[in-house]
């Protein structure tokens, strides 16, 4: 028993005893008349009423606290029993006032307007008393059974796998405290399970990017099934770190991995920042996928600049040259493998074509090369300086694929010259493609006067010169 309950019980007893002793003065102050009751209380009666009032208040508090320590069945019994007894007494008195003293019975009949000539009033008072009894019973049962409704809501929520935040409160009785503890443990287990699932998803996202899940229309790793696939238009980006192979021969195995990861730790976050994801790590390079072409271009620019900064800060190792090729088209995103081991992948000619573009990128000495399909996907308002560097002829295809180089990553002075000479350079490329090698030779000779270190112009100049010599022979 709590200390406060002991205090309330003591106050009840202390007030009840003098109230009971002084009750005779209270009854003496109540006078029955032919028209009802009159009240005339002296000082002892008033004091007795005060003691009785306080004892009723604290007795009720103690009674409620007594109910709280009982089980639900006993709570219902002990809460309804006093009211049922009062109801029974009231109905009995309405049926026969003969048990009351004569003058008291006359006063009660006068107040209730009950007489031998007006018997229907007794029935009306009985109906009213019954309605009051039913109403109070309904309110009482609703209050007592309210914890059951809370249990129903909480268990329904937990049954659906939903977690309840904060403490679970059911009722005030001892029985419900045990139920609360049980539900709290269940809720805690759900939280722990959900946290483990979230943690597992976070760990799995290191291997299966969440962007890949979005392409498949899945919200969680656990939803992936073998054979899941969807075809969508997307942009692929090949990034190759040149010189890392030659560097790796001079490093230990651990140093080699640290060297490669030091660059990949720069590239991968940039891919995510630009709404893409890394589909594959290719040793000293990556294959990334982007939902929009302009985001792939932006990412390529960011990678080139970040690698340049990295090269400047890393003086004890040779610089790494970065080559990026970009292509756009329809790609199939899917889950392949077997039930015991599933893996996400992308399947498309776009990927194979991007690798071929990368070969041209290396040969031409350019940094960022993208296809005509990628250029067509870039919004008109997107500000991008680029130039046409030639076409890639695919195996089994008659139509060549035009390729373009981004000029945005060059130093400002060099970029301004490249932009200014763009039309002349492209005219030279077209002349070479049309077999006008002499015109192409002269054009690229003029370009090299202003851009002596422009490798694409130098390559076209040499190839045009070789073609002219072949013709002369």
Report on the architecture of this protein.
The strands form two sheets. Strands 3, 4, 5, 6, 7, 8, 9 and 10 form an eight-stranded mixed β-sheet that branches. Strands 1-2 form a two-stranded antiparallel ribbon. α1 (3-21) packs antiparallel against α3, α6 runs parallel beside α7 (174-204) and α10 packs antiparallel against α11 (293-313). The termini are far apart. The protein is rod-shaped and about 150 Å long. The chain is built from 17 helices and ten strands. The mean pLDDT is 80. It has helices at residues 3-21, 23-28, 43-68, 72-95, 102-112, 120-159, 174-204, 210-216, 244-248, 253-273, 293-313, 349-364, 372-377, 412-420, 422-433, 437-450, 455-472, and strands at residues 30-33, 36-39, 229-242, 277-281, 285-290, 321-338, 341-347, 368-371, 386-392, 401-406. The protein has 473 residues and is of the alpha+beta class.
Structural topology:
Blueprint: H1 3-21, H2 23-28, E1 30-33, E2 36-39, H3 43-68, H4 72-95, H5 102-112, H6 120-159, H7 174-204, H8 210-216, E3 229-242, H9 244-248, H10 253-273, E4 277-281, E5 285-290, H11 293-313, E6 321-338, E7 341-347, H12 349-364, E8 368-371, H13 372-377, E9 386-392, E10 401-406, H14 412-420, H15 422-433, H16 437-450, H17 455-472
